[in-house]
Amino acid sequence: MRISEEGWRLLTFWVFTAGGYLILLFIVICLAFLFQTPRRVLLWIALPQITLVLLLWFAAGDETLFFPIGAGWILGLSLLLALLFSHRLRQPHHLWAGCHVVVLLLLLAHMGDILERHHRRDAYQAQQAAEETLLRKIDTTDDRAFLNHLMSQAMQPQNAGDWWTNRRIEHLAKRISPFDIADGTEKIWLVLAIDRLNRPAVGAFASWFIGDSVQAKQYRYQLLQNNPLLDLLNRVFNDSTADEQTFLQQQLLARDICTSLISVVPELLTDELYAQAVAFDNSNKPEPFSWQFEFDVFYHQEK
Question: Where are the transmembrane segments (predicted)?
Answer without folding.
Answer: 12-34, 41-59, 65-85, 94-112
